[in-house]
# Entry
Amino acid sequence: MSGVAAIAEGVASGAAPAAGVARETGERLRHSAGLNATLHWSQGLLDRDAARIDRLPIEERKALPLAGVPVAIKDNIVTTDEPTTCGSRILEGYVSPFDATVVAHLKAAGAIISCKTNLDEFAMGSSTEHSAWGRVKHPLDQARVPGGSSGGSAALVAAGVVPAALGSETGGSVRQPASFCGVVGVKPSYGRVSRFGLVAFGSSLDQVSVFGRTVDDAARVLAVISGQDRNDATSAAQPAVSLEPARKDLKGLTFGIPREYMPADLDAGVRAGIDLTVKAIKDLGGTVKDVTLPHTRFAVPCYYIVAPAEAAANLARYDGVRYGQRRIGSEGDVRALYRATRGQGFGAEVRRRILIGTYVLSSGYYDAYYRKAQQVRALLADDFRRVFDAGVDLLLTPTTPTPAFKAGEKTEDPVAMYLADIFTCSLNLAALPAMSLPIGRSGGLPVGAQLVAPMFAEARMLSVAAALEAALDASREVR
Amino acid sequence: MSIRREDVLHVARLAELDVAETDLPKLVEQMGRIVGFVEQLNEVPAGEEAPPFLAGPGRTPLRTDEVAPVPLVRPPSAIAPEFIHGFFAVPRLGAMEGE
# Structure
């Protein structure tokens, strides 16, 4: 399958019309059905949108940066043509009356919305095993998970069904599956991309994020969806991310390796991958230094207070009156309606997080948990500020402590599952841009490196990632 | 701090969430482990402070005072289960509460 730039060029010039792209995308979607990565799609919609692009005069097509490019959308980003279920029974059949801002931007840029992708229910999970519509399988080993919660989008990009896809991040839900599946995953700075139409989970953490087969694929999509939006009061007064060519070298750049992200029990394959990346940085003229982020070990416990607290508030709207498939309780009063709707509509992981979030916000516990977590969040963010202020341009860490794990391995132990986000969730807490780049394989499974940049320095991060992508062979065994 | 069965039932009531009797033992055990895990934060001394952190803009930006139509592709009547005389119809709460 071609990349984003090549597809757009072929469609714009008429050499490879969008109709053909739509037909081939449909064939790939049918062939990949066994991954259970897709929740909604139709050949009719693909053909309709392709015809709309092909009918445009050539000058107009050439002005579209994503002319005819098929992009998959995580099913917690609202679309008017297909349902948005968030992987939950409670939203079964829900079709939004408006498009998310990011979807509107994609359509205006000529992209074809190829499908809605499977996810952990309401984006709560790290393995895409918590979807009401069944688990997503890893494209390289179907006994393993693709990571989560944007596992459907990651699997489709990794399987070559689409060159790019949208996911969402609250604690690593794009970078972690990108690492597991061997694709590029980019989480922009908080506020860089509109959240209007992204179904809220943790409002101070959520960001629409991008998967690509390559850095260039992801960058081109990010450039289209980013920018300030009047419909999102938390979107930043920043322009769209600019597209910059890959750097030829890394001279003059200092990379920090936080020692807390290289623990003694780090998977040997992941460690070998990071060692190779460090060597590539040095070969390209970059400087590497050891740095410390002393509050790192508190990131996951902090996250698992802040995120469930915000989720408990955001998910209050699914009560059978405002949103959600209504279920009448046995007692016949309105509270029974709420409780039955929510108790039967949400899955086990979502119920558990709502209960935890309600607990940490409840009278008598708020100061001990939620206020404490806010203090620690500020300390975590300050760790990063100090490192960047001291002259570090980018941080390099593993994206995940291990390659993709087996399905069912962590489903009974929520804390073990939460620790899958150990290297990613601190960046959501600190609101910083970060990405996962495939750097090699260990035992046949992809390994990813994470790059972290200062606030709104996505363009620098992407141009460096493109240089490393060219220098490393991600299909090679690292050990 | 350990989580008891009554704690789970209490927060379930606050969260307006039915919890099946059969799910309770597992929930008590799992919530206990999660709460025990997040209590690691107590190791951070209370006096250790950093500048207050806000993820978004420092202040909420004001929009220009213009009425912009909400770009809905289908009308409210096509969204709600019931839409009567320009209103969303919901279950009659008083009647449901045994008026």
Observations:
- The first strand of chain B starts at residue 83 and ends at 84.
- Chain B has a mean pLDDT of 86.
- The helical segments of chain B are 5-14, 24-38, 93-96.
